[in-house]
Amino acid sequence: MRKRIIVVLLFVLAVSKIVAQGIDKPQYRIAAYRAGIFIGNIDIELFPFFTPLATHNFDSLALALAYDSTAFHRIVPGFVIQGGDPNSINGPISTWGNGNPNQPNVNAEFSVARHVRGRIGAARDSLINSANSQFYICVANALFLDGTYTVFGQTIAGLSVVDTIVRSPRDANDVPLQKITMFVTPLGSNPSVPPACNLTAPADQSVGITKNQIFTWSLVTDAVINTAEFSTDSTFAVINNLVTTGINQVASPALLSLTKYYWRVKSNNGGHESLYSNVYSFNTAFGVPILVYPINYSVNVDTSPTFIWNSVIGNVSYNLIVASSPTFSTQTTVFNQSGLIDTTQQVNGLLPNTLYYWKVAAKDSVNIGLFPTRNSFTTMKVTSVEEVPSDFKISNVYPNPATSELFFDIFMQSSGILDISVTDLLGKVLKHENKFYNPLLKTIKLDINGFAPGNYILNVTKNETVKSFKIEIVNK
Question: In terms of domains, do 73 and 157 share one?
């Protein structure tokens, strides 16, 4: 979208104090004429609270009569009408929309304000901070522009005139066949303060709130931006999470498990903020364990694998379920153990060449958390007794936690090549090497110097049989 606007940068110094107290929204009337015949008035107001630069720029141009006789040079049905280019006063039509290179640019002021019907935005070229005098009015919702163009005002009357303009006959470049000019005059300002909203969901004092929760509140008709605050302190002395949105709901922010939170919302109409809403509280549920091993869709998994998952915050134990069906029916469940304290558990006796599913949930003495999306894996294929790798055993991995070296005791009746890798918890391979094993060698050493502190997975593979262990690396 092409552009143009002017700015007086001295205004910036005063903005912080004005914004902190709120500022009345300046209003203007745009009188529109087609081929010299009056069409009607479009009344607008701007959002100085969060777009002080664009607001001051428009105000300066309007007071200098710079918009008078400029044209709405671009009309796109179902999208926008655009104007304000000084070239359109008396320049060739081919230059309309190119702007005057002598105009200073205005930096972008992105916000969560939405491009809904009637909203006004700063037109620009491909450079983010290239807006100057040109602006557009949304004829319909254009939410795909959100966050990439500056929304700095809205139409408060005369949308029917906007509709009349956009329906005008136009050429292949969306230029009206008859010139549509504008004259801009100040109307005053709007000092209104939006009313406080009311929280609606989840209900006050809810429990078991998960990361999938949507927080909603009553609609404030003149709200442009809403701010939801979440705190573990009922006085909100510390704000743990702050989320801004252009609608009356937000998805759950990153919240701690098993924690009591308080939340509230305030609205902003572009000039002033409302009082805070009522305060609700809620208690979060357990976190969801992240399944680590066996990796989803993995194959050739040992028939006695060690299942590994990430811990969650809280004094919890875990429930591991393994089944041969994605429904985890009683008939297909082969392992169902609750009260697991560690985040690893070996399960013996799985059938070879079989597809299995597994999931883990956290729980305490009263409640059980959500099971995450299940993982699946297929055990190794065994076609004869000779292929069973009964001589491949790892009895110990130490030290764990480790610093720069890691050792594991191994038993194999015959020599062979071991494929050894270390991955992060998402499966990304960070170290890989092959080692020749001699039955006389009882211990393998692995250099882990240079790894960042954290949790990793050690994988040792022989003939497609994998032994996996969760390890922790700490600073020296």
Answer: yes
Q: What is the CATH number of the domain that holds 375?
A: 2.60.40.10
Do 21 and 163 share a domain, yes or no? yes
Count the Cβ atoms, other than its own, within 10 Å of residue 91: 14
Local structure of residue 108 (DSSP, 8 states)? -
All residues at 6 or more sequence positions from 41 whose CB lies less than 8 Å from its CB, including other chains: 29, 30, 31, 32, 157, 158, 161
* Contact by Cβ (8 Å): 46, 54: yes
Q: How far apart are CA 458 and CA 59, in angstroms?
A: 64
User: Cβ atoms within 10 A of the Cβ of 22, count?
Assistant: 16
Residue with tokens 């110990």: 396
pTM: 0.64
pLDDT band at residue 3, thresholds of 50, 70 and 90? very low
Sheet holding 214-217, edge to edge: 199-201, 214-217, 249-251
Q: Catalogue the E-assigned strands of 277-316.
A: 280-284, 291-293, 298-301, 306-309
Largest CA distance in the chain: 100
Q: Which residue reads 């926008």 in tokens? A: 80
Q: Can you spell out the DSSP letters for 321-354? A: EEESSTT--TTTEEEEEEEE-SSEEE---PPTT-
Do residues 133 and 61 make contact, with C-beta atoms less than 8 angstroms apart? yes
Q: What is the pLDDT of residues 324-367, one digit of tens each?
A: 999 999 999 999 999 999 899 999 999 988 999 999 988 876 66
Other Cβ atoms less than 10 A from the Cβ of 199: the count is: 19
**pLDDT range class, residue 11, cuts 50, 70, 90:** very low
In a domain, 3, yes or no: no
Using pLDDT thresholds of 50, 70 and 90, give the confidence band for residue 315: low
Which of 409, 459, 165 shows the shortest CA–CA distance to 300?
Answer: 459
* Rounded mean pLDDT, 240-267: 93
254 and 170 in a common domain: no
> Which of 388, 416, 449 finishes a domain?
388
Q: Which tens digits make up the pLDDT trace of 33-69?
A: 999 999 999 999 999 999 999 999 999 999 999 999 9
Boundary of a domain, candidates 388, 404, 431:
388
Q: Are residues 203 and 108 in the same domain?
A: no
